[in-house]
Amino acid sequence: MSLLADVQNMSSRTCNEKGSAMFVRLLVCWALALLSPGTLAQTANSDAASADDSATPRDRSPWLALPLLQSNPKLGTSAGVLGGYIHQFDAKSRPSIFAMQGQYSDTDSIIAGGFARTSFDEDRQRLIAGLLYGYVKNDYDDYLGTGVPLKSNAEVHSFITRYLYRVKGNWFLGAQATYQNFAIEGETEFDNEVIDILGVRPYRSGGMGLVAYYDSRDNENMPTRGWVLNLSNIAYRETFGGEENFDVYRADIRYFVPHGDRNVLAIRQLNHLTDGAPTQTKATVTLRGYKPGQYNGDYMSSIEVEERWRLAEKWTATLFAGVARTYGGDQSCSEENRYPAWGAGLQYILKPIQGIVANLEYAQGKDGNYGVYLKMGYAY
């Protein structure tokens, strides 16, 4: 479920409303929406076989719809909708999802995109693809930790795809590619001077890379056990349609431990390393509650721990905490470059057979950073 989140790492403005008040308001709206007659899912069960036996016609429906709400320093307060179609190509393959989404914010920012996450050939092959368009009005009080305020408008067109082939057991090998066209301009002459000084400029990038992937999870959407290892790189080159040559490497480990009555402890450790990347594509803090793109470095490492409690057949709750650091180049592993985060969430199981949840979360970072999110799927 994180594909669009990965390609939506664009910056934006600070909200005026307090995060806690907004979280309560959105919680009420979300509960009313889910419990209305138009709700897609009416029952849930964590055991897939049992869920299939007791599933209602709406549970079995391949169609998926979900309102999207977001309030954070990235896009102000935004609302939108996600619509999708679920299909299982064969008995051994995992459910495939084809979806589109769109959001509009009170800052006159727009994000729209579509994605497909497929499993086929008895889950020997997996293919992910996504398209994104974004027009974001940025308003930073402190851009990139320089202490300088910055207002700008950014427009992004992105495409990303990944193909994996199962080589043995739970191991996959594959390749990935991405293309992005990014345009940015300041709202005033002063803003344009700041953009020029900081090295933020319009750019076009294209890259390809390799992937080594291990996946022993029992369910991609709502895992209760197993672990994932994702090792990948992207070599951005002029040959692939870009304007500059640089490299990006990622090492992502996720581990899921069941305990108690269907509770799960989830752990994620992420490393994002860049070499020769322009300012706007350096490794960024990706923890919930922070503005993607504001805190960057040559390298970024983070760790998150999330407890997922099963409250009832239809409901789960989460409590999470994490910390990230940016380092490399002229940055050291100092307290200034340390970014803690914590938060909580409430989830409703929309599709019990596939394990698809609607997820409402509040996250708090340092220096006034926070986020409120209503989205599809757990964070990882």
Structural class by secondary-structure content: mainly beta
Mean pLDDT: 82
Helix-strand sequence: HHHHEEEEEEEHEEEEEEEEEEE
Q: Which architecture name does CATH use?
A: Beta Barrel
CATH C-level class is: Mainly Beta
Q: What's the structural domain tally? A: 1
Strand content: over 45%
Quaternary state reads single chain
Enumerate how many helices there are, as a single number.
Answer: 5
Rg, nearest Å: 20 Å
Structure description:
Mean pLDDT is 82; it is low at 1-50. The protein has a single domain (3-376), classed as membrane protein fhac: a member of the omp85/tpsb transporter family (Porin, Beta Barrel), CATH 2.40.160.50. The termini are close together. 11% of the residues lie in helices and 54% in strands. The longest helix is centred in the first third of the chain and has 17 residues, at 19-35. The strands form two sheets. Strands 1-2-3-4-5-6-7-8-9-10-11-14-15-16-17-18 form a 16-stranded antiparallel β-barrel. The protein has helices at 3-7, 19-35, 48-54, 57-60, 189-198; strands at 63-72, 76-87, 96-105, 110-120, 125-140, 150-168, 171-186, 203-215, 226-236, 246-259, 263-275, 283-284, 296-297, 299-310, 315-327, 338-351, 356-364, 370-376.
